[in-house]
Amino acid sequence: MSPCPNRFSFLEGYIEESVDILKRHFHIVCHKDFLQNPALHGPKIQAVFMWNCCPAAEPSLLKSLPSLKVITNGGVGIDHLDVSLINSFGVKVANTPGVVSDATADIAMGLLLASARNIVEYNMIAVDPKTNYVPQNLMGVEVTGSTLGIIGMGDIGYKIAQRSKGFNMRILYHNRNRRSAEDEQAVGATYCKNMDDLLKESDFVALAVSLTSKTTGLIGRRELSVMKPTATLVNVSRGLVVDQDALVEALRSGTIRAAALDVTHPEPLPRDHPLLSLPNALITPHIGTNTFATTMKMVERMVENAVAAVKGLPLPDEVKLK
Ligand SMILES: O=CC(=O)O
């Protein structure tokens, strides 16, 4: 793609190397600069580049961007965007599916292993010379050969299954649609039409669904009570998929063993949130895609979507309402 200095876009929260990619194709207007003079910048903006932590694309913003062709989101989840509202302004929405799946599946496995084997606690013990090292008091649970239940078997869920196969895990999955027999065989996954069957049998339950009205609160008090008391809940989807109050209660009462969460609601959690002080909750601040390689791939894909929209061409990853 050739440089196109007549294209304008927002910019917020980008690493330097990715800014270079953006600048090859767009003049950049940072969100904070835009806010200082919307009347000057607004009419020129043709593409908004955003992450899910950015301010929402509200009607007042959309009205102030008459030349806008596309909102291009870094990441697969677009639950923070009202696609039909945005489309009603003649603006397309794009995301970056595919390129985020490996890194997100890696984080799911990282959380699973860290929680199972108390890696964070042991790191604290190892670096604190005052602590007595008594491993018997902090036994981990075995990952190899255990049962993993994956809820949401899209690209990310499937990549979690691929990784789990290397740990000789028994893999159960629950998904709106059953995967093909070849997909199931390739990772040795068994379909559970009924989610409770998966919850009852799994030592680890990994959530990899998109957040929709159907998946909001999918794991609540009842579902947690169906899980084994020795089970660990891993969430790399969205915080709202889990009823957090019910989760706190389940972790306190021993209804389940532990939770390892890359996503919460809200993000970040307020400093006094009970989840932050529970010894059996391991929290990371939504870093599923946060590697250099994946970030660069996301930005490249965001740019491809934006350039296509500005040129009036089909978008590689347009989000279309079903
Ligand atoms: O949260 C990350 C994503 O939606 O890709």
Automatic annotation (TrEMBL):
The keyword RNA-binding does not apply. Residues 109-288 form the D-isomer specific 2-hydroxyacid dehydrogenase NAD-binding domain. Keywords: Oxidoreductase. It comes from the Eukaryota. InterPro entries: D-isomer_2-hydroxyacid_DH, D-isomer_2_OHA_DH_cat_dom, D-isomer_DH_NAD-bd, NAD(P)-bd_dom_sf. The keyword Phosphoprotein does not apply. Transmembrane segments: none annotated. GO terms for molecular function: glyoxylate reductase (NADPH) activity; hydroxypyruvate reductase [NAD(P)H] activity; NAD binding. GO terms for cellular component: cytosol. CDD domains: GDH. Residues 16-319 form the D-isomer specific 2-hydroxyacid dehydrogenase catalytic domain. Belongs to the D-isomer specific 2-hydroxyacid dehydrogenase family. This is Glyoxylate reductase/hydroxypyruvate reductase. It comes from Kryptolebias marmoratus. The lineage of its organism: Eukaryota, Metazoa, Chordata, Craniata, Vertebrata.
